[in-house]
Each structure stands twice: as C-alpha cells, then as structure tokens.
Amino acid sequence: MLKQHKVAILGTGTMGRALGSGMIRAGILEPKQLQGTVKHERELAQVRELVPFEVSTDNAAALSGADIILLCTKPGDALELLSGLSAERCFESSPLLISIVAGLSTAELEAAAGPGPRIVRAMPNTPCLVGAGMIVIAPGSAAEPGDLDLADEIFQSLGRVIRLDEEHMDAVTGLSGSGPAFLYVIIEALSEGGVMTGLPRKVATEMAAQTALGAAKMVLDTGRHPASLKDEVTTPAGCTISALLSLEDGRLRSVLARGVQEAARAAAGLGKSEPNS
Ligand SMILES: NC(=O)c1ccc[n+]([C@@H]2O[C@H](COP(=O)([O-])OP(=O)(O)OC[C@H]3O[C@@H](n4cnc5c(N)ncnc54)[C@H](OP(=O)(O)O)[C@@H]3O)[C@@H](O)[C@H]2O)c1
C-alpha cells in the first residue's frame, strides 16, 4: 500500500533517521519515495551519510507532493515550523501528518497547522532502528478511519504497535519512549556485575543484553505475568532469591517505577516552557 505514497520527514535527527531508514530496510518504501529535512545547512553532509534517502533544508520542497508527513523535530521547534508551513499553504492537499513529538497534543498541533492536515500522534522509541520498536498511536480530531490504519502499517514495519487514547501519551512517553535509556543503564549495570565477578566486559555486556532480550521475549510470547516467570528462576534458598532480596533492599522496583512516573511528568511539560527539551 505504501508503494503509492510520498513521505516527508520534517526533522531527520535521531528519530527521523530511525524511522526513515527503518521503513526502507523493512521494504515498505523505496528511497526515492522519501524526502527528509534538517534545520541547519551545517548538518546536511553528516546526515546524508547516515541515511539512504535525500535530505535538504527546504521543508516546503519536501512537502511538495508528499501525502504523508512525519513530524520529528524537538517539541520546542514543532509548533513554529507547522504554523510557518501553514502560512506558506503547504498543507492544502490535506496530507496525513504523523507527529512523534513528545508533549504536544493533537489539539496544539492542529491549532498551529490550521485546517488541512489530518493529524495522528505517535510515540515510537529508538529500537525502531532495528525493527524492535514500541509504537503507540492515537488519532487527532480530523483523522479519518484509514489514517490510523496507514500509521499502523508504517509502524508495524518498525516494531510492535498499540492504539491508545491520546490521554495516555505522556505515560507512554515515560514508559516506552524513555524506557530504552532505562534498560541500557540496567544492561550496563548487570554487565558491570559480571565484570566485578571476573567476566571480560565484552562478554558480560553480550550476556546481559541477550538475557534482557530473552526475558522480554518470555513475557511477550507466553503472556504470563513477570512475577510468575521470576518465581521459576528462584530456587528455595538459592542464589537468585538471595540476590532479589538484596535488590529489593536497594528499592530497585520503586526506583524504576518512579523513574517512569518522573519521565511522564516531564513529558507533559515539553514544548511549553523550555525550548528543545
Ligand atoms: N530520541 C528519542 O528516543 C525519542 C523517542 C520518542 C519520541 N521522540 C521525539 O522525537 C522528536 C525528535 O527527537 P530526536 O531525538 O530525533 O531529536 P534530534 O536528534 O535533535 O532531531 C531533531 C531534528 O529536527 C530538525 N529540525 C529542527 N527544526 C527544524 C525545522 N524548522 N525544519 C526542519 N528540521 C528541523 C533538526 O535539524 P538540525 O540538526 O539541523 O537542528 C534535527 O535534525 C522529539 O520531539 C522527541 O520528543 C524522541
């Protein structure tokens, strides 16, 4: 279905590159169907080396003929960009505009873009780059029934997709948007435990990452509660229960849960006061 579309990525930064390169790698788009933009000329040469599609600083040219727009700038840049493009009549063809911008509601985006684009809000994460992303999508007020299906098809090529009401988007940002960073710290910490007990660092990191991947796959593939899977690893009086009690003494569980809560709280303020957070 996407083979008939032209896609513009406004903001070919970390996420714009992950989404654009991921869609091409998944085979749902040809490079010639995709046009990316960045703000600064000085970034162009480096970004062009990183992606298999054309990138420019000309947003209006990228939007010309595009029927799907991925808005991937930082929150502090998004509204000004949309209102400028609206003033240049770049949305008159009523494109589908998918915003991955944290903290900005579809109502705020619609107010800036004016009548024209049908907006869908999405929250992906960086593992989209390797086809293992978690993406949540929600429709704006002008989105048509087929728009969510189209967004679904795009993001299915990059990972697992869930449809939720927009009211959950800050929580989603705190859990799956920010979550890869939390898990990298956990993987690094587990690896350091291995190094501390004598494993070479490279081996320890590989073991920690594969163990995280395997545990995640057990939860997703079996549908069982994580606590029940954890219980299977804990032999009475064994090493795992001994370590788990030590982790509970360090409040691991509440520290992680509070981290998600804090990220969600911070996400709600993005694009409101501080520019580019
Ligand atoms: N990073 C994550 O893990 C993650 C996860 C989920 C959602 N998000 C959301 O994704 C968005 C992008 O995050 P990111 O980490 O990819 O940021 P980033 O790496 O800083 O990329 C932002 C991009 O937007 C470009 N840009 C800024 N203003 C522009 C304009 N007026 N016209 C065209 N391009 C413009 C920048 O160009 P220059 O480089 O030239 O300034 C840069 O290429 C954010 O809204 C964030 O909330 C991020």
Brief account:
The chain is of the alpha/beta class and 277 residues long. 53% of the residues lie in helices and 13% in strands.
Q: What brief labels describe this structure?
A:
277 residues; 12 helices; ProC C-terminal domain-like fold; Rossmann fold; alpha/beta; single chain; binds NADP nicotinamide-adenine-dinucleotide phosphate; eight-stranded mixed β-sheet
Descriptive account of the structure:
The chain has 277 residues and is α/β, with parallel strands linked by helices. It is built from twelve helices and eight strands. Helix 7 crosses helix 12 (252-268). The chain is elongated. The site of NADP nicotinamide-adenine-dinucleotide phosphate has 27 residues, from helix 1 and helix 4.
Through-space gap between termini: 35 Å
CATH superfamily of the largest domain: NAD(P)-binding Rossmann-like Domain
Gyration radius (Cα, Å) is 21 Å
Widest sheet: strand ordering: 3-2-1-4-5-6-7-8
Which shape, going by the Cα principal axes?
Answer: elongated
Assembly state (oligomeric): single chain
Q: Give the beta-strand count.
A: 8
Identify the CATH class of the largest domain.
Alpha Beta
Beta-strand proportion: 5-15%
Helix count equals 12
